[in-house]
């Protein structure tokens, strides 16, 4: 019995150890399964996160491309408008003023632009010329017409742009004196607008100009002109009047009623207000002049007692008492001799004429004046004028006495506002 117990005990122990080992192996396998499952879940989350990140990057890139595309389109038309505004400014300054009429013959654009931009650019150029000048625009339909014919068995296609004879014929039929060609060159970094005008009869190049978007504002900056104001000053928008006011003081010789040189010396004050038009070349407005006799202001000097004690003679009705104060009013027209762009660094000249009247006490007469203005800088000017007075009448003791015509002059300095 004892021997049997010793035999069974090792067997039971071995069985228990075997069962325990299998149980441990099952536990390890279960842990491995759970670990693998957990890693699988983490991998799926990483993949989903990566997918979401890629989607966000693609969405951001698409938004950037959309914004960049819209910016490029807006920028193209903005630069084109600036080039056309520069051209319109030159036209408004009188660059094409000498031309009687003009016709747009040919418009070329870069290959990167659609062909429809040719007609679009032609309309824009025509609009700028029409709004900023009085040059007549003539539409040349034959200039854009192509013809075909057989020459020695070959088909020849010609147009006035390639056939000088046809072009001259079209110009003679429509009465066109000048043709204009337009070229628009577009690059990703800049844009160039080039124009040339030539005479149809002599084929002589009359005017040519190139506008580059990189240097378009340099001329305005050198002249201290605000480019934004120039851009907004295109005709067709709200009209803003441009006035000039002159306030001056001087003296001169103004004929008095008795034609006495001692009574003709005057001290003069002037106020002129005019409105500018035609690019500051012309002005029209009013001028008020006030004259005071020099002797009445400065007084008489060196009067002797003999003269003061001399008996006074009564003035007859035919004797005229010289006036001491007079007011003259003129309607003024001025023509300024300035170039296409007025520069304050140069001395400018202007001519003016006025028609009005001169009134003093009981004396009234028609008056005419012609003047010469010399402008220094922006604020100061010298004014020289010749004044003519028409014959009139003066009243002395209820009697009218005729006065003769006279010519005088006036010289003064004025401040320009």
Describe the structure.
The protein is of the alpha+beta class. The protein has three domains: 59-138 and 175-237, Rossmann fold; 141-166, no CATH class; 243-298 and 321-416, Porin. The protein is 33% helix and 37% strand. The protein is built from seven helices and 17 strands. The protein has an eight-stranded antiparallel barrel. The protein has a five-stranded mixed beta sheet with strand order 2-1-5-6-7. It is elongated, with a radius of gyration of 47 Å. 20% of the residues are buried.
Features:
Rossmann fold; alpha+beta; Porin; 8-stranded antiparallel barrel; 7 helices
What is the CA-atom radius of gyration, in angstroms? 47 Å
Which of globular, elongated, flat, extended, rod-shaped describes the shape?
A: elongated
Number of helices: 7
State the helical fraction: 25-40%
Indicate the low-confidence ranges by residue numbers. Answer: 1-6, 232-237, 301-318
| Arithmetic mean pLDDT | 76
Instruction: Give the number of DSSP strands.
Output: 17
Instruction: Tell me the count of domains.
Output: 3
CATH topology name of the largest domain: Porin
SSE order, one letter for each helix or strand: HEHEEEHEEEHHEEEHHEEEEEEE
Largest beta sheet, briefly? 8 strands, antiparallel, barrel
Level-1 CATH class name of the largest domain: Mainly Beta
Spatial order of strands in the largest sheet: 8-9-10-11-12-13-14-17
| CATH architecture term of the largest domain | Beta Barrel
How far do the termini sit from each other?
142 Å
**Global structural class:** alpha+beta
């Amino acid at each position: 019995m004892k021997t049997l117990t010793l035999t069974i005990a090792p067997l039971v122990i071995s069985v228990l150890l075997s069962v325990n080992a299998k149980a441990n192996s099952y536990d390890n396998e279960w842990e491995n399964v759970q670990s693998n499952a957990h890693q699988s879940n983490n991998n799926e989350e990483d993949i989903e996160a990566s997918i979401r990140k890629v989607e966000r990057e693609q969405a951001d890139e698409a938004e950037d491309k959309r914004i960049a595309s819209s910016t490029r389109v807006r920028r193209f038309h903005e630069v084109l408008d600036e080039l056309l505004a520069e051209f319109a400014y030159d036209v408004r300054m009188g660059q094409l003023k000498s031309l009687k009429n003009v016709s747009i013959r040919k418009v070329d654009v870069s290959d990167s632009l659609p062909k429809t931009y040719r007609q679009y650019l032609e309309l824009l150029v025509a609009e700028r010329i029409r709004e900023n000048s009085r040059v007549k625009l003539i539409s040349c339909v034959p200039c854009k017409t192509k013809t075909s014919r057989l020459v020695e068995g070959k088909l020849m296609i010609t147009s006035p742009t390639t056939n000088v004879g046809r072009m001259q014929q079209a110009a003679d039929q429509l009465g066109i004196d000048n043709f204009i060609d337009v070229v628009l060159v577009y690059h990703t970094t800049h844009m160039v607008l080039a124009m040339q005008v030539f005479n149809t009869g002599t084929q002589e190049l009359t005017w040519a100009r190139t506008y580059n978007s990189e240097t378009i504002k340099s001329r305005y900056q050198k002249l201290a002109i605000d480019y934004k104001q120039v851009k907004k000053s295109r005709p067709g928008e709200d009209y803003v009047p441009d006035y000039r006011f002159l306030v001056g003081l001087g003296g001169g010789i103004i004929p008095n009623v008795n034609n006495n040189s001692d009574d003709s010396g005057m001290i003069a004050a002037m106020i002129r207000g005019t409105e500018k038009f035609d690019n500051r070349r012309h002005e029209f407005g009013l001028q008020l002049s006030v004259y005071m006799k020099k002797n009445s202001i400065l007084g008489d000097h060196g009067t002797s007692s003999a003269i003061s004690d001399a008996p006074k003679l009564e003035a007859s009705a035919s004797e005229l008492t010289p006036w001491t104060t007079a007011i003259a009013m003129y309607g003024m027209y001025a023509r300024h001799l300035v170039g296409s762009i007025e520069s304050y660094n140069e001395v400018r000249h202007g001519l003016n004429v006025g028609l009005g009247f001169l009134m003093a006490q009981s004396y009234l007469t028609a008056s005419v004046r012609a003047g010469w203005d010399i402008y220094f800088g922006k604020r100061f000017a010298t004014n020289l004028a010749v004044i003519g007075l028409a014959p009139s009448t003066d009243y002395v003791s209820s009697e009218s006495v005729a006065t003769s015509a006279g010519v005088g002059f006036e010289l003064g300095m004025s401040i320009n506002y």
